[in-house]
Amino acid sequence: MFENTLSPPAHSDEIKHSLPTEHVLLLAMNRPKSLNAMRDSMERDLEALLNWFEEESNLWVAIITGEGQAFCSGADLRAWSALHGSIDIQARYTSSFNGFGSISRRNLSKPLIAAVNGVAFGGAMEMILNCDLVIASDNAVFALPEVKRGVVAAQGGIPRIKAAVGHQLASEMLLLGRTVTAVEAYQRFGFVNLVVPRDQLLPTAIEWARQITQNSPDAVQSTKRALIEAANHGNVEQATFAHIWSPESGRSYRGENMKEGLRAFQEKRKPLWTNPAKL
């Protein structure tokens, strides 16, 4: 067992947080009676907790899941309908730098795993598409059904799903608004890494997170930066240059963990990684 001395920011009971193993943060959306529909208060909690995760050097990987029978059913349409007409939606989306659920447009430097335990519709699907790894229970279902309600998936989901699955498969989900099973998402669309029985979902996600923490956190975060730059640049050389000169890569090249990894290899032992220096 590890000693937990971390102090998360204050938040409501709409988000549960725990530390299931060393260096790993587990966040669970907790409005099960509403299928974890996202409202402003839940989004603010996620914003605070993910900002803390980003800044806390002792946390290396996060998992996001939902309580009850749903991952997240998307936006709380009752709350959203009450706002419609009273706010400028385009201005709201433009200023929402981290996107839906504070995840769909967030450039998180640390790995984020989605453990999808049921319904993942609309904005929840946009969140998943910005996660690094997606593990789904065998009863999970996915959809971008916004067109059925006269709204648009405008929080990063459209370009991300097009990049992930190609134009035609993206159009199938976006223009038909059809629901996709976990097996389809894994076998045909390819935005799910693994499908497991419901009772194995969290144990599997925690084990994958634990495996990531066995690697150098400096190297992992530099590698994730490379993936972000690859998405940001259409040119391989531009993406490579941006990655090489990124703060994460500079820290990796100059940090103790690279030295420790090479030293451990020579001494034929497991490396003892340390927390990354703050950027």
What does this structure look like?
This protein has 279 residues and is of the alpha/beta class. 44% of the residues lie in helices and 16% in strands. It has helices at 40-55, 77-83, 89-95, 123-129, 157-165, 167-176, 182-189, 201-213, 217-232, 236-244, 247-254, 256-267, and strands at 15-21, 24-29, 61-66, 70-72, 112-116, 119-121, 133-137, 141-143, 179-181, 194-196. The strands form two sheets. The chain has a six-stranded mixed sheet, sandwiched between helices. Strand 2, helix 1 and strand 3 (61-66) form a beta-alpha-beta unit. The two termini are 29 Å apart.
Mean pLDDT: 94
**What is the rounded Rg?**
19 Å
Order of helical and strand elements: EEHEEHHEEHEEHHEHEHHHHH
Q: Compute the separation of the termini in Å.
A: 29 Å
Low-confidence stretches: none
Helix coverage percent: 40-55%
The backbone outline, from C-alpha atoms, is: globular
Estimate the strand proportion.
15-25%
Spatial order of the strands in the main sheet? Answer: 1-2-3-5-7-10
> What's the main sheet like?
6 strands, mixed
Number of strands: 10
Number of helices: 12
Please identify the oligomeric state. single chain
Which class best fits the helix and strand makeup? alpha/beta
